[in-house]
Write a structure and sequence with these properties.
Blueprint lengths: L10 E6 L3 H8 L5 E5 L9 H14 L6 E5 L8 H12 L5 E4 L5 H18 L6 E6 L2 H5 L1 H5 L5 E6 L1 H8 L18 H14 L2 E4 L8 H14 L3 E4 L5 H7 L4 H19 L5 E3 L2 E3 L1 H27 L1
Parallel strand pairs: 1-2, 1-8, 2-3, 3-4, 4-5, 5-6, 6-7, 7-8
Antiparallel strand pairs: 9-10
Helix pairs in contact: 2-3, 3-4, 11-12
Amino acid sequence: MTDRPRRARRVQLSTPGSSEKMMQKASESKADHVFLDLEDAVAPSQKRDARKKIVAALKTLNWKGKTRCVRINDLTTEYAFEDIIEVVEGAGEHLDTIMMTKVMTPADVLFADKLLHQLEKKLKLKNRIGLEALIEEVEGMQNVDAIAKCTPRLECLVFGMGDFSASMGVTNKNVGASDGYPGDIWHYARFRLVMACRAAGIDPVDGPFADFKNPEAYREECRRSMILGCVGKWAIHPSQIELANEVFSPTAKEVERAERIIVALKEAEAQGKGAASLDGKMIDAASEKMANNLLATAAAIKKGEAARSKAA
């Protein structure tokens, strides 16, 4: 199995796996993707019990139209391998992806890849469980190209700027904020991660913004990462979902223009031309690629929204 499923990831909603109430709310939200957290959002004394709560939530709540993800603890802890085993054995086909934290090298991802392969064979699962990897340490960013290409099971990389700040010695006070830096302090890291993802054919996702009471600043961070090529951003609070969905959704006008680009270039090709003019601007093969990307994104979003509407 080498084909990766096309998933909408405009927003990835962080949800503590220790809270049945918050997981219930997450299942009813408009987020494309929800990750039930076993890492930072769960106290060490609650981690093992949280696995059981997550399995129950995945099996009993209505997640129609959403990507169902579980974020595990990092591989330096005592929890990671049992996080994978207990959640996969318990939830089985009700789980879409596993999110790995503090990924440093391809070997980290390949460990989970092999373990999932064995579990899928044991449980006779029909669908492959995908992997998502957080790049949140300097070492991980230095190895990002190799990580992005290490296995067909890997579906996306997420830039975790909180831990990355600590790893770099950055002194910002709020996760995801620039704190007066003259420019976008995250530009290089985002750009590097996006390039690695695009070269590997996987999705780049931007990480958290801690000040959830500052919607305009969050919207601006969404806009910056979207322009660089990210497909979505984390939401650490439900109030951020609508903002991310808005920024990362193609508008009706953009979809209509993309469709016209495809038609115009087909007509040009029939006339033996490699380029065409649309609305007074030149379009060519590069324009067609961008148009197809936009239409594929719009289709994935529409599919998820239709599924959520039908399930409501």
